[in-house]
Amino acid sequence: MKSFMSMKYASLKPYVPGEQPLSVNELIKLNTNESPFPPHEGVVRAAGDAAKRLNLYCDARARELCEAYAALIGVSPDEVLPTNGSDEILYWAFLAYGDSDNPMAFPDITYGFYPVYASLLGVPARVVPLKDDMSVNVDDYIGIRAHTVLANPNAPTSVAITKDEIERLARANPGHMLIVDEAYVDYGGESCVSLIRKYENLLITHTFSKSRSLAGGRLGFGVGCAARIAELNAIKYSINPYNVSSLTQAAGLAAIEANDYYMAKAAEICEIRDDCAEKLRDLGFNVLKSSANFLFLSYGANDARPLCEALRARGILVRHFVGPRTLPYIRMSIGTRGQMNTVLEAIRAILREG
Ligand SMILES: *Cc1c(COP(=O)(O)O)cnc(C)c1O
Q1: Which percentage of the chain shows pLDDT scores above 90?
Q2: What are the distances in angstroms from CA 41 to CA 25, 38, 47, 65, 249?
């Protein structure tokens, strides 16, 4: 069959999202790092109220949302840009800053969308291996003559680096952007938001998909100095001015009002995570030190696929990344205490069966 697709996409390998089964009732879904907790009731109510005005376009600038989020994180409204999930702001950053003279550097093991955006946009990728312990070595990026994108904490490894290390990199490469994807920062990482006025090359991305139980609503933010946000707004108004729906703007605003609820839930996830990690280590697993709402674990050096399949047979979904260094690992999101007890029981049973 003839293809009409431009040849420039001939080698495009799209991102592969984790499985979203249509019926999740009998499954324990630990494969896409969502929150196991429902949105706050105020969020449900706000989205319902907003639905009554769906005949009208949403506020393209999302002013109320910008003001509320800026106040929450201690910046000014012109330093934030709400987007359709943080995937959108990441995409726009690649669009705005990457080109054939300005490659994008990122680790060999990180969020799968970075290589996809680079390939889609024809931006050369500089892939930098993580250290043997799966942490980022900031020195590898100093003087690299490329923009850098780092997830901190990183995914799927769960490992964080310090704010001091991020600052050292921002200072060392003033001629290039440093994009820090803080999707998991509420689970024990150190945010770099307070550095945006000091380093005009810094862009931070946030999401409401994880700690704020809003993955289906699609809400993310870019946070940077006013000049960077203005540039990214130029991209936004060239693509999709109404990028955050009125339902999501209302839900996001209500989620900010319910911040205490979400932060308490994030703290609960951290407790369950640390408990679960300890029990898995006792069973002989190698579990990386996690600052996120998931664990990255291996059992010996073998392919983790049989373990994934055994878990799947028991109704437990986890994620496995087929890559030379990730093959022995599974990434398991942290669910409720009850869910994690069931998972630990299942793992014990699988190990007994050999
Ligand atoms: C989940 C995730 C995102 C966020 O995706 P959304 O588009 O906001 O749902 C961004 N970066 C990383 C590393 C993630 O794991």
Answers
A1: 93
A2: 21, 8, 10, 18, 16
